[in-house]
Amino acid sequence: MVVPGRAARAETGVWLSVLAYVSLTLLKLAVGALAGSLSLQADGYNNVTDLVASFTLLVGLRVARRPRDENHPYGHGRAEAIASLITSIVMAAIALQVLLAAGARLLGLQEGTVPDPLAAWVGAAAAAVLFTLFAFNRRLAAKLNSLSLWALSRDNLSDALVSTGTVVGIIGSRLGAPSLDPLAALVIGAVICRTSWSIFKESAIILTDGFDEQELARYRETVLSVPGVEGVGDIRARLLGRDILVDVTIKVRPDLNVVDSHRIADATERELRRRHRVRSSFIHVEPS
To answer: What is the DSSP string of the chain?
Structure first.
């Protein structure tokens, strides 16, 4: 279950990204056309796809805030993971576009022009804005433990690197080294690909109920440390958005009554919440 207040605060970071991307897109496309910079115009179109990703995340956060219903007894927290998955696909498309454009320039299939210095100043300003946005969303994602905001912050970083590469390419073109433009684009495309794959893998693991075995082993150790627990049977965990759900079977003395067994189960639940921030746990009690 996603806490409504947390999701609402997460939307703040997304809306800031949307406003920044709208402004930067219009500025880059206009200045890129006036200054004769194809790379700055491409960077502007890159931000158009970022707007699509941001709106996708907004939809995911809104859906995640919905309470439990008959068809979703665990809530709608996985909408965040679906939104992050879509974001990773959009980022992969951006990376492919950057790599193809860079390859065409390196192979001489696309002729380059020497842009006006104004294009470099706009690219540098855009990079500064995006680096600031990345830092803000990263801190907010860590504070709220939000997968979608974490994905968005990494997208902000990728876009900041794209703008930085654009500036390098523009300056290189003006200094008589036009090959710097496509080479920088290749590096940026590789960075975006890596980020996209990281987000895709993390989202896919959540959506397929995957979980880190080492983390699960730490949960087992915590359960065994609870007074009265003599053994651990089956233990499973999964993520619902960023909330952890654990199912565990504990073994207690067979001569304990229901009240004492329930007290041990409650203590186990508290320890999992205290040590590992497990939001919900189902404790099944069996005689050892």
So the answer is: ---HHHHHHHHHHHHHHHHHHHHHHHHHHHHHHHHT-HHHHHHHHHHHHHHHHHHHHHHHHHHHTSPP-SS-TT-STTHHHHHHHHHHHHHHHHHHHHHHHHHHHHTTSS------HHHHHHHHHHHHHHHHHHHHHHHHHHHHT-HHHHHHHHHHHHHHHHHHHHHHHHHHHHTT-TTHHHHHHHHHHHHHHHHHHHHHHHHHHHHTT---HHHHHHHHHHHHTSTT--EEEEEEEEEETTEEEEEEEEEE-TT--HHHHHHHHHHHHHHHHHHH-EEEEEEEEEE-
Mean pLDDT by 10 residues, the chain (288 residues): 52 78 89 79 76 71 67 66 79 79 70 75 91 88 75 82 84 77 72 80 77 84 89 82 79 89 89 83 85
pLDDT, position 1: 39
Give the chain's domains with CATH numbers: 4-207 (1.20.1510.10), 213-287 (3.30.70.1350)
Q: And the tokens for 33?
A: 């056309």
For residue 128, give every residue at least 6 positions away whose Cβ sits within 8 Å of its Cβ, in sequence order, or none.
none
Could you tell me the CA-to-CA distances from 10 to 16, 149, 166, 184, 195 in Å, in that order?
10, 7, 30, 33, 21
Torsional class of 75: left (φ above 0), alpha (ψ -120 to 50), beta (otherwise): left
Report the distance separating Cα 103 and Cα 281, nearest Å: 52
Q: Is this structure's pTM higher than 0.70?
A: no
Q: What is the pLDDT of residue 121?
A: 92
Measured between alpha carbons, how far is 181 from 179 in angstroms, rounded to an integer?
A: 5
Give the per-residue pLDDT at 128: 93
